[in-house]
Amino acid sequence: MYLPVYDTISKDTTISVGEGALYSVLAIAMVFAILLIIIGVTYLVFKITGLFDLKKELDEAKKAKESASAPAPSGEVTIKDDDMMAAVLVATIDYRLTHKSDVRVVSVKEIN
Length: 112
Prior knowledge:
The structure is a single chain. The protein has three helices and no strands. By secondary structure, it is mainly α. It is rod-shaped.
């Protein structure tokens, strides 16, 4: 496509206003076509990566639903003193940091 335009325009020929307008419209159309191609490719890339993010969110929601459906304990946890409260808090914070999930105290047992 470049060669016919180059062959028709040489240093000793003059171009009419109509031919110049045609060449400029053709160049503008080519620029917009290339921009549309770039926009389309980036849209598809972000759409594909969005699907992977959606799949990851669905997997996390499924995992959270499975952990929430675990049977609830029948009795309440009774904390007798401040040392027991500190131990429970340290254990829940440590579990939360290592497993990156919600924590619920099921039972506390005092060891002598």
